Hints:
mainly alpha; Serine Threonine Protein Phosphatase 5, Tetratricopeptide repeat; Arc Repressor Mutant, subunit A
Amino acid sequence: xxxxxxxxxxxxxxxxxxxxxxxxxxxxxxxxxxxxxxxxxxxxxxxxxxxxxxxxxxxxxxxxxxxxxxxxxxxxxxxxxxxxxxxxxxxxxxxxxxxxxxxxxxxxxxxxxxxxxxxxxxxxxxxxxxxxxxxxxxxxxxxxxxxxxxxxxxxxxxxxxxxxxxxxxxxxxxxxxxxxxxxxxxxxxxxxxxxxxxxxxxxxxxxxxxxxxxxxxxxxxxxxxxxxxxxxxxxxxxxxxxxxxxxxxxxxxxxxxxxxxxxxxxxxxxxxxxxxxxxxxxxxxxxxxxxxxxxxxxxxxxxxxxxxxxxxxxxxxxxxxxxxxxxxxxxxxxxxxxxxxxxxxxxxxxxxxxxxxxxxxxxxxxxxxxxxxxxxxxxxxxxxxxxx
Length: 388
């Protein structure tokens, strides 16, 4: 292989110089394996993670550097897919071959990604270990900036928001000039931390600055924050999920939870929440509990808490409520932590599959049931709940 030629095209890929980068396909100095590695990167950029993984699995090479690149890209795919244990497995394989190749840049980026993977599964000691290894292999301003960003995130995760915000305020002024490649991602991270620190105006300003991000990943996260901001501020319902959010498994799942709570899809919400707990057991528990103090202040949990129903302030004695269907209606609403869709209530109360012909009877039941207890029956987005 000709490493100099490979790195030239890698630099073009990083700089998003698409036309020049795509000439790799005809480059005589690149081997078949090198071209396949670049093709895998193109598939990643196009959000075709599984196709990228299949291509990477098919690459055969004995060159330590190319082996390291292959494993690094596999780890990166799994990191994006939120499959953190798989990402860590292939990341450690990449480390082995980058060390043989004595490639400090490869070691830096792989150690850093390993720290991210272990952070997301709540293994803070391993996260810190790999961050230290990344720091030892940092060689340029861009990498040192990435390390500073990691230090900001560490402060935030410990709820040391004053320190985190102080660093952010200094770093944001230089990000567009100093490290253009990292600017969009850094601003997303900054907005998240500003929000947790209750610097809402600063968070919103930063998000607005990256709404047209070139990277699908950063654009997806920006849209996620923007629409959750809109809901928190004005109660505006989430729209259909943007493709760029769909491409981010963790944020896509959180979007589905918020949207389906809004729409009263109680059973689907329970299933989605269970999936979130399975994927992030260190951070989320049953009954919509957030187990991490810093994460509980993040925008997703803030939006979630705005939607969750508080325990009724007044004690309700359903035995004194007249009418079987009124009792069933109020029982359904008292027992839930989230609003309930009209169709779900009709099926539970009448014991049959929903039909629009039952709507009129349902609305009459709602009117008849109002005032039977010391709580009000409210309706938003065609989903019902009790409020003081």
